[in-house]
Amino acid sequence: MKSHVLSIGQCTPDDAGLARVLATEADAHLDRARSGEDARALLAEKKYELVLVNRILDADGSSGVELIAALAREAHMPPLMLVSDYAEAQAQAVANGARMGFGKSTLHTPEVGQLLRQALHSDARAGT
User: Fold this and answer.
1) H-type helices in the chain, by residue range?
2) Host domain of residue 120
3) In 3D, which of 71, 89, 92 has the Cα closest to residue 80?
């Protein structure tokens, strides 16, 4: 069964890359949200197994880490991951409720494919 992933705040080319990797590495479909508001609407309509949040949302320049902190407090939220090459931003996201994410520079590596498969198919997400 195909998994569903929500991407928040990526630009169009980055979402295209994410969609390709998710399709080939994890048999997952990617939906896009430009903002936190758009994301909340999609999350209310559809079940997602993973949410990927850009460090800086492309549409409005807002903080992805702050969005993760807000989303992590909501009930029944799927696992969250930050998309950023900055270790400090990853640490902040994890401290605010995200799983360790990855950077765009490592997107096409076997390690990121494994990370995505684990996030989408782990027993740990069954309780979320």
Assistant:
1) 12-26, 36-45, 64-72, 87-95, 110-121
2) 3-127
3) 71
* Maximal CA-CA distance, the chain: 35
Which has the closest alpha carbon to 101: 18, 41, 24? Answer: 18
The answer to whether residues 83 and 101 touch, using CB atoms and an 8 Å cutoff, is yes
pLDDT, tens only, 17-74: 999 999 999 999 999 999 999 999 999 999 999 999 999 999 999 999 999 999 999 9
- CATH number for 46: 3.40.50.2300
Find out whether 30 and 7 touch, Cβ atoms under 8 Å.
yes
- Reported as a single tens digit per residue, the pLDDT across 94-123 is 999 999 999 999 999 999 999 999 999 874
pTM of the predicted model over 0.85: yes
Counted domains in the chain = 1
